[in-house]
Amino acid sequence: MAMSFFDQFASPSYLGIPLIAIAIALPWVMYPTPSTRWINNRLITIQGWLINRFTNQLMLPLNVGGHKWALLLTSLMIFLITINMLGLLPYTFTPTTQLSLNMGFAVPLWLATVLIGMRNQPTVALGHLLPEGTPLPLIPILIIIETISLLIRPLALGVRLTANLTAGHLLIQLIATAVFVLLPMMPMVAILTATVLFLLTLLEVAVAMIQAYVFVLLLSLYLQENV
Fold it and tell me: What does the domain layout of the chain look like in residue ranges?
């Protein structure tokens, strides 16, 4: 029984064919395509307004050079939010509970920000490894510590997203199992547990959106240091 709780995180397959590609591609099909007309319907208008607000919030701390990343970062955030929200539906699979997928997003984008800093301003980029005014005996130790903290950034991005979503899905499944077990024996306790389950589900909806926003926000902060 304990092992079955983790079956929901196994990558689904049909006739030996992995279905994770469909789970990743499906969110883009759900969004309506803006038309060339001057007047759009309400759904497209709300979608455009939300995307503009997200983009303005992300690009606010960046200078003009970092605005080239607006399309990439906004698309990534919408993609992560959609996948996380769809994963809360029954009988669905959440690709972002896979550490390999999250690291596949985190490592290349983090590496791109580092390479941009090394190309545009190598002195400033290397200067982040050694704070100003450091005593001479501490210089080697601080360089090693700052280098490790720099290299651990993509791991922190991927693990944070994976751990938060995995923990939330496990809690929902555990409490839902408790509701079914308690319902025949103690109905009142089962009702209270179901209320906790409903509140936890609302919390997970918020976590699904917040974690996608935090993932992209941290990438924009890393970009801010290098542009």
Answer: 7-226
Contact 73, 216 (CB under 8 A): yes
Query: Rounded to two decimals, what is the model's pTM?
Result: 0.83
Q: Can you tell me which residue has the tokens 């789970």?
A: 23
Task: Give 39's pLDDT tier (boundaries 50, 70, 90).
Answer: low
**pLDDT category, 34, cuts 50, 70, 90?**
low
Mean pLDDT of 35-43: 70
Least confident stretch, 58-62, 144-148, 184-188 = 58-62
Quickly list H helices, the chain: 20-30, 42-59, 70-86, 99-120, 122-127, 139-151, 153-182, 187-224
CB 161 within 8 A of CB 215: yes
Decide: residue 1, CB within 10 A, 0-12 exposed, 13-18 middle, 19+ buried.
Answer: exposed
Give me the DSSP letters along 95-133.
GGG-HHHHHHHHHHHHHHHHHHHHHH-HHHHHHTTS-TT
The CA R_g of the chain, rounded to the nearest whole Å, is 22
What Å distances lie between residue 179 and 55, 87, 88, 185, 187, CA to CA?
41, 21, 18, 10, 9
